[in-house]
Design a protein that fits this description.
This protein is of the alpha+beta class. It has three domains: 45 residues, 2-Layer Sandwich (Uridine Diphospho-n-acetylenolpyruvylglucosamine Reductase, domain 2), CATH 3.30.43.10; 110 residues, Uridine Diphospho-n-acetylenolpyruvylglucosamine Reductase, domain 3; 94 residues, Enolase-like, domain 1. Helices cover 30% and strands 23% of the residues. A hairpin with a 2-residue loop joins β10 and β11. α3 packs antiparallel against α4. Keywords: FAD, Flavoprotein, Oxidoreductase. This is Carbon-monoxide dehydrogenase medium subunit.
Length: 261
C-alpha cells in the first residue's frame, strides 16, 4: 500500500466537491478498490468515502418499482427487498461472503461494472434506471463494455430503480474461490415481454440475449429455448472455462432460470 488521504463527506454535494480535487477517487464499500490499491492497479491521492452519506442508503417502493440507494449494502438488499423483489434479494444474498455482503454496495458494483458481477445482470434484465447526482440513465444505455459505463468524472450513483417483474430468477455458475459468476443469467418477465441478461461470459461485459427474449416473450417456458444458443465468438476463455463452455452454460442456466421463475 502507499500513502493517501481519506475524506468522509456527509452529503452528496460535499462528495461531488471532494471528487473535483486532482486524483481523487470515490470509495464505496471498497471490495474492489482496496485490493486494487494493494496491487498498485489504482493509485489515487485522495479517497472520497461515501460510507457516511445517509441520503444514498435505504430501500423504498414507488410506482411498481423498488428504489435502492447507491450506498445500500448487498446484505441490506437481501433483507429489505425479499418481499417486493424476491429474485433480486436472492441474488444479493449469494454475492461473495458475509464480509463482502456487509461492505459492498449496489452503487459500487454498478460503477465498477466488473464483467462477472451480478448486479449488472439484474439491472439490465430488470430494465433498471441508474440515478446519479445529475441525471437518470437507462440500464440499456449505462453499460458500455468491460469496466466501462456512461458515468462521467465525479458522477455518483445515488440510487437504482428496479421495475418489479411478474416473474424473475437469477442463476449463476460460480467460480468457487471468488464466488463471482463464471456465467450468470437473470431472466425477468414483464407484461410487455421478457428480458434476459448474461454476466460473466462476454469480453464486453454484461449483455442481453435478445434471441432468447423473443422466444420467451411468446412462450415463457424452458422448452421455448430448445435449439437456441449463443455463439462462442466474443465470449471469454480463461483457466476456468473456454468460450464454448461458457456458451453452453448460458443456454443451460437460462433454462434453469426460466424454470425457477
Amino acid at each position: 500500500m502507499y500513502s493517501f488521504d481519506v475524506v468522509r463527506p456527509k452529503s452528496v454535494a460535499d462528495a461531488v466537491a471532494a471528487l473535483g480535487e486532482e486524483e481523487a477517487q470515490a470509495l464505496g464499500g471498497g471490495q474492489t478498490l482496496i485490493p486494487s490499491l494493494k496491487q498498485r492497479l489504482a493509485m489515487p491521492s485522495v479517497l472520497v468515502s461515501l460510507a457516511s452519506i445517509d441520503e444514498i442508503k435505504g430501500v423504498s417502493s414507488e410506482g411498481g418499482a423498488v428504489k435502492i440507494g447507491g450506498g445500500t449494502t448487498h446484505g441490506a438488499v437481501a433483507r429489505e427487498v425479499a418481499s417486493s423483489y424476491p429474485a433480486l434479494a436472492a441474488m444479493a444474498s449469494n454475492i461473495g461472503d458475509p464480509a463482502v455482503r456487509n461492505r459492498g454496495t449496489v452503487g459500487g458494483s454498478l460503477a465498477n461494472n466488473d464483467p462477472a458481477a451480478c448486479y449488472p445482470a439484474a439491472a439490465l434484465a430488470s430494465g433498471a434506471t441508474i440515478v446519479t447526482n445529475t441525471r437518470e440513465i437507462a440500464a440499456d444505455d449505462y453499460f458500455q463494455g468491460m469496466f466501462t459505463t456512461a458515468l462521467e468524472e465525479g458522477e455518483i450513483i445515488t440510487a437504482v430503480s428496479f421495475p418489479i417483474p411478474e416473474k424473475a430468477a437469477y442463476i449463476k455458475f460460480e467460480q468457487p474461490a471468488s464466488r463471482f459468476a463464471l456465467v450468470g443469467v437473470f431472466v425477468a418477465k414483464f407484461g410487455d415481454g421478457v428480458r434476459v441478461a448474461v454476466t460473466g461470459a462476454s469480453e464486453e461485459g454484461v449483455f442481453r440475449w435478445t434471441e432468447a427474449e423473443a422466444a420467451l416473450s411468446g412462450d415463457f417456458s424452458a422448452a421455448a429455448l430448445d435449439g437456441l444458443s449463443v455463439p462462442a465468438d466474443g465470449l471469454m476463455t480463461d483457466l476456468h472455462g473456454s468460450a464454448a463452455y461458457r456458451a453452453h452454460l448460458i443456454g443451460v442456466l437460462t433454462k434453469r432460470a426460466v424454470a425457477q421463475a
